[in-house]
Each structure stands twice: as C-alpha cells, then as structure tokens.
Amino acid sequence: MTAAVAGADDERKAQALVRDDAPKLLAALKEMKDGLDLVRSKVESLTRKVRKNQLPTGDGIGYLEAKHHLLLSYCQDLVYYLLRKAKGLSVDGHPVVRSLVEIRLFLEKIRPIDKKMEYQIQKLTNAADGAAAQDKVPDDEVNVKGRQQGEDDLLGYRPNPDMMDPKIVSEGQGKDGIYVPPRIGPAAMDDSHSKDAVRKEKRLLRMATENPYFKEMIDDAADRPEEWKETAGDESKEFMAYMRQREKQEKAEEELFTRAPVTKREKYMEKQMKKQLHGLQGLTDGFDLGMNTLLDGEKEDDGGSSEPRRQSAGRRKHQKGGKRKRH
Fold first, then answer.
1. Pfam families per the record (predicted)?
2. Taking the model in full, what pTM does it have?
3. Total domain count, the chain
4. Does 44 map to a domain?
5. What is the model's pLDDT at position 98?
C-alpha cells in the first residue's frame, strides 16, 4: 500500500513538472527546429560544393575556424541540455551548464573582433567570388573588364578608417567633444656626460669669480672703481671660504633669531684668519722714529751745533710722548 502511494506521488510530481516546463520546452524545440532547418540547408549546399572541389578548404582564416568550432560545441551542448530536459532529468550543477556559459561568454567577448574583421572578410569573400566568376567568363571579356576595373579592385583593399580603435581617435577629446591635450609633460633625459659638463662649468665659474686676478680684470673691463683694501691676504681661497661660511651662518641666525653655537674648530679658524690678516700691521709702527734718528745722526757727524741736538732730543721726547698717547 505504501509503495503504491509513493509511486502515485512520483507520477503526480512528474506530471506537474512536465506541465510547468512543457511551454518552455515546446518553444525551445520550435526554435531549435527552425535553426536546424536553416543550418541543414546551408551545410548541405556547402558540402556539395566541397565535394565538387568548388570551395577550397585549405589556407583559410584561422579566426573563423576557431569561431566555427566554438559554435559547433555550443550547439552540441545545447542539444544535450534539451535532451536532458526532455527526459525530465535535472540539470542543476551539471557540467553542460558550465560549458554553455563559458562558450557563450567567449562568443560575447569576440563580438568586437567580428565587427573589425567584417570589412576584411567581406573584401576577401568578394575577391574570391570575383575570381571564381572570371574563370567562367571567356578570355576576351576578361581582358576588357580587367582594364576597366583593375584600378577599382586595387582601391578596394584600401584601409578602412572605421576599423581604427575608438580609444586612439578620442584620446585627446573630452566628454563634450572638446580637444584636451594629454597630460604628459616632456621629461628631459640627462645622461652622465651632460651632468658632468654642467658640474664642471659651475666649478669653473665659481673659481673665476673667486680668483682676485679675474675679478680685477672684470672690474677693469666694466670700468668699476678700484677697491682699496686695508689689509693684505683677504683675497686668499681660505679667507673666501671662511667668509662664505660666516655669511651663511649669519643669515641662519637672522632667520631663527638666535645665536648659533661656535665650535672649537670655528674658533680656531677665526683665530688663524685674524693672524693672517693682521700679522703685518705692527711692522711700520716705529718707521717714522727710526728715520728721524738716522737723519739726526748724520747731522752730528757733519759737525752741527748742540742746539739742533737738543731740538732733536726734544723732538724725540715729544714723539715718544705722542706714541704713548696713541697707545
């Protein structure tokens, strides 16, 4: 009794499943029958031509061959899918569904390629049809038509502007159709030789500006007033480097409003610069006194009176007193 009830339930479920899927199945079968009739008519005509050696099958377009294999696999999977549906079998999770989805995705992805290849395929097809038609025409008519259409046939293979990539065409255009220049600035590619040349030129310019002889020549050429220096040695290389460092330090102190700490090395350098600049200042302090003493001694040797001697002694005292006052 239980088995009979279970069998009746299964039969009712199968009938309900058929009633639900019957309209879809009938529509799919009708569409499939129409497609098969169209395919059968074309395949039969092509098969007859191939058997009669009217259509060469070698050296074809590889893209079309791959596309035809995809379409054939899609048709086979679709027939198997409909067969399972007709038998009432489930297709959930079946590999045929995954295969149908993959092939359909491939066919959708190659649609832009079909659009770009359509022009070339059409031209090649027309050329093949024209060559086949000329084989059936007598030689005299072929020669006459060949002279008239020779140039037209060559122009038929000219490039088609519509096949250009739209990204390349509209690269410099904005959304409103206004030309927008690309935002790629030119970059200068400096090699090591050019960098070395620039560095050498800067070094020579710095040496020329620091050299006192060149500075004097530049001042003479520019008719500038001559610079008078109180001390000697302030045009040396060490002094110029010291002055540049001092100017840089003073500028930093003015910007930060604080005194920079002085290191022992900087103190030593400053002391050495002062010795170099002021080491010769005291050599001429007693030059006037020595010259006067020498002149007085020569007058005494000539037999002069004692009065000039007293005057010279007084003058010496006066000069010594003035010297002390200056100190």
1. Sas10_Utp3
2. 0.35
3. 2
4. yes
5. 92
